[in-house]
Every structure is written in C-alpha cells, then in structure tokens.
Design goal:
The structure holds two protein chains of two kinds. By secondary structure, chain A is mainly β. In chain A, about 0% of the residues lie in helices and about 50% in strands. Chain A is built from no helices and twelve strands. In chain B, about 0% of the residues lie in helices and about 50% in strands. Chain B contains no helices and eleven strands. The chains are: A mainly beta, B mainly beta.
Chain lengths: ~110, ~120
C-alpha cells in the first residue's frame, strides 16, 4: 500500500542553523510529492512540490526539497532557520497520502 | 481574499444527531477534496470531486458519510447518526487541473465534537 513516512515527530533547531525535515515515500514509479506547513490555528499551506524534472525544488519562504529516487526520500530543507518557521510540516504523496507530521521548533 | 472557506468552523452535537459541513472552494478550481484530521495525525483522505463527479471514496468513508457537489461549485459533507469517534477536524481543499499534480489549497477546517 502507498504511504508516506515522517520518522521524526519533533525537530528542534537553533535559529540561524540549517534545518531538515525528513520524508520517505513508498510508491513505485514516478511519485508526485508535496510539502505543506500548518501554523497554529491556520489551515495547511502549500510549500513546494516535485512532479518531474530537477531533483532539487525550491518553494516558499526559502524552503527547498530534494527528491532522491534511490532512497525514496523527499526531505525538506532550509539553509538558515527562523523562529517564524516553527510550525507543523506535512509531507504528502499526491493528494491522497499524508504523513503524520513533524513539529518544528526553532529556538532563538 | 477568495480562498477556500468552510462553515461552520465549530460544531458541537450529541451522539446520534446529523451534521452537515459546507465547503466553498476557490472558484476556478475543478477538484475538491475532503479530509479528516485528528490530533497528532496528518489529514486522512475521505473523498474527492472533479467538477460535480465524485471520483473516489476512501474506505474510511462509512455509509453514514455522504458528500455532494451538486453544481461543481460548493460541496457538503453530511454525517448521519454521529458517533463519538467522528470527533475530528474536517478539512476541505481544492485544486486546479487533472492528474493529481496540482497543489491543494486548504480551508481552515470544521471542528466537530460529538458528546
């Protein structure tokens, strides 16, 4: 069965340090992969997606993600974390399969 | 702002009652999705429409749940004979295009509490 895994429930990073939020997928073939962010008391917002082409995709707020087919991963990254990046992050495979979310806390 | 809107934002009901949620998508979006989200979990897909056609339903969608999108615009999700296990946030999202490549635009959700 198709699924998306986010192995870390919680990630803490110091402000200014690089951050990574991990995601792995299980679908074979060519997946459509997405990252969404949920701020407290707000709806989920789209960050970026991989459909085809360049394995490194850039999105909103300085985030980027790298599609790695051999490792079936699509990790979210940002070179320098901001306190305002603290939120809940969800990885998704197409529109049907979401991970359980990773809570990111950026420590001032 | 003409984003996705959901109504009501909060609903408290007694077990056994029926509830209905409404979703107004972004007007030019042809796809509309419903999800359920509980604490500590990601959104769980329930069903989706392309225009007015309901194309897929999850096994999570028991026969007490029904969704409609009568004119390809707004959608309703009805839960009949609610149970305490139905307590959750119900999310609506819309997207444009075919083939599942379009990103989702979410509403802020309708929180259901069943007493």
């Amino acid at each position: 069965a198709q699924s998306v895994a986010q192995p870390e429930d919680q990630v803490n990073v110091a402000e200014g340090n690089p951050l990574t939020v991990k995601c792995t997928y299980s679908v074979s073939g060519n997946p459509y992969l997405f990252w969404y962010v949920q701020y407290p008391n707000r709806g989920l917002q789209f960050l970026l997606k991989y459909i085809t082409g360049d394995n490194l995709v850039k999105g909103s707020y300085g985030f980027e993600a790298e599609f790695n087919k051999s490792q079936t991963s699509f990790h979210l990254k940002k070179p320098s974390a901001l306190v305002s990046d603290s939120a809940l992050y969800f990885c998704a495979e197409n529109q049907f399969y979401f991970g359980t979310g990773t809570s990111l806390t950026v420590i001032p | 702002d003409t984003g996705v809107s959901q109504d009501p934002r909060h609903k408290i009901t007694k077990r056994g009652q029926n509830v209905t949620f409404r979703c107004d998508p972004i007007s030019e979006h042809n796809r509309l999705y419903w999800y359920r989200q509980t604490l500590g979990q990601g959104p769980e897909f329930l069903t989706y429409f392309q225009n007015e056609a309901q194309l897929e339903k999850s096994r999570l969608l028991s026969d007490r749940f029904s969704a409609e999108r009568p004119k390809g615009s707004f959608s309703t999700l009805e839960i009949q004979r609610t149970e305490q296990g139905d307590s959750a946030m119900y999310l609506c999202a819309s997207s444009f295009g075919d083939g599942g490549t379009g990103e989702l635009f979410f509403g802020e959700g309708s929180r259901l509490t069943v007493l």
